[in-house]
Amino acid sequence: MKKRTRQILDILDEQYGTEYRCYLNYETPWQLLIATMLSAQCTDARVNIVTESLFKKYPSASAFASADLKELEQDIKPTGFYHNKAKNIISCMKDIVDKYDGEVPKSLEELTSLAGVGRKTANVIRGNIYHEPSVVVDTHVKRISNRLGLTKNQDPEKIEQDLMKELPKDHWILYNIQIITFGRTICTARSPRCEECFLQKYCKEYKM
Hints:
Layout: H1 3-16, H2 29-38, H3 44-57, H4 61-65, H5 69-76, H6 82-99, H7 108-112, H8 119-128, H9 139-147, H10 156-166, H11 172-185
Helix pairs in contact: 1-11, 2-6, 2-8, 5-6
């Protein structure tokens, strides 16, 4: 690993610690899968408000699989894009019940074969449920990894490959957790707080 990358990770560890934490509330693997699907283009805080009552109303994967589409749309409406999300959740849970006996699968191939599940969602499940080291590339990771010069790519799959080469395996999940916090508080998309940034000397876009 490059010395520069090690220095960046050391600073992130110092600022945010090395504890694994998921910002989405869940008790079971299928709940995390649904919460992650709902989090697309929506804040985790809002998803957690919605899922608090949602998971009481639908207490199992099979309850979601047999849900009424229009009713589920209304239940998840505050998360946005609710037509697509509701359709995908019902289809995804049907497959989990029918093909996987109610268990959320482990492999990337099986996960991404489910409706509405892309690599990002699959890697969230693999990292948090199965503790399989994986790099989750969301908007924060994409933007900030480019700024830090850890990748030059814009395609999430290529960024994922770059970061897997660049970062030590024990930081694959951790880096995502730390960068989400960093991206929400300091290196925001619209108006980054560059003067407060503890990584400014590593940033390709920071102008003195």
